[in-house]
Amino acid sequence: MNSYRDYYIDINSNWNVDEMPNKKYICGYCGTLVSSVRGMSLMNITSREPSTNVGVYICTNCNLPSFISYDRQVPGNRFGAAVNNVPDEVNKVYEEARSCYAANAYTGTVLLCRKLLMHVAVDLGAKDNCKFVEYVNYLADSHFVSVRSHEWVDQIRKYGNEATHEIQVNTQQDAQKIIKFCEMILKMNYEYPSEINDSDNK
Prior knowledge:
- By secondary structure, this protein is α+β, with helices and mostly antiparallel strands.
- The chain contains 5 helices and 5 strands, in the order E-E-E-E-E-H-H-H-H-H.
- The protein has 2 domains: 7-74, no CATH class; 88-200, Four Helix Bundle (Hemerythrin (Met), subunit A).
- The protein has a 5-stranded antiparallel sheet, with no helix packed on it.
- This is DUF4145 domain-containing protein.
């Protein structure tokens, strides 16, 4: 998914919207928790009453629209947080995994995160052409993962099933776990060291 800043909204323009029942949600574009009353609701053609559960809401932060129908939201919440100072190619895969999650594509999320962790391990000194589990072990054994995170590592290893003919459909919980793990790895090894270096140079 592109950055929400790529969707140009003229500062002198505005949506022709109605006032709606207040809705609190996390915007799928900018990631901000907002409470909006601006948008367009679904109208009952008989009673002419607006629906309180279905409509298009305008984000009060980025001014972009989200379709909300009961507990479904499009675009959905991009699970995980943005991480600073990550190499561009690595960050693209991480953000693509978050976008997959927002589209409820949980198996795609897990596959992208597997690829991401393999690239990160190689970037941090692992050999090429290893198995996924070997890369996870490398990150743990080389202390690129906190020494108190062994339970996390054990959970992530289960995504290393590489049986050629086996189709595995991953759950939302699977996707959340591996995104959290990726976020932790990226922050510990890219964002935090970079922030320390920046502060030392001031």
